[in-house]
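Hey, I was hoping to borrow your eyes for a little while. There's a protein on my desk that I can't quite get my head around. The fold is given in discrete form, as structure tokens running alongside the sequence. I'd be grateful if you could look everything over and explain what you see. Here's the protein in full, and shout if anything looks odd to you:
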Amino acid sequence: MIAEKKPQVNAEHKEICYIVFKTKGKTAQGSCLFKTGSAKEFPEVLEMHKLSGSHCSLLKVAVSSMQHLEAVNERLGRYGAQITNIVTSSVLTRRIIDWEQPDVDLNPPLPQGWIE
């Protein structure tokens, strides 16, 4: 028996991809990534977010190659259908917001029809 080598992932010097799961309720196999998956099983996952609407979750993953991405997608496939997007460039990262003195009005007036 040959032990499967787990990928070692360092978020620096890797390609960043976003994977969106579109599952409603249980998948055909009765699996749910939140309930039956684990971070240990997917070391490539940097972030995982639950979503509202028609999609179930959003994952931010770091992979070393397209082949690695394909392998991650194959492993994730048992949890449901997915859409994968690759980041081609980053225009805004690590932005800091000054909530104490914002540059915009955080409380714009309501339209007159909504005020009682």
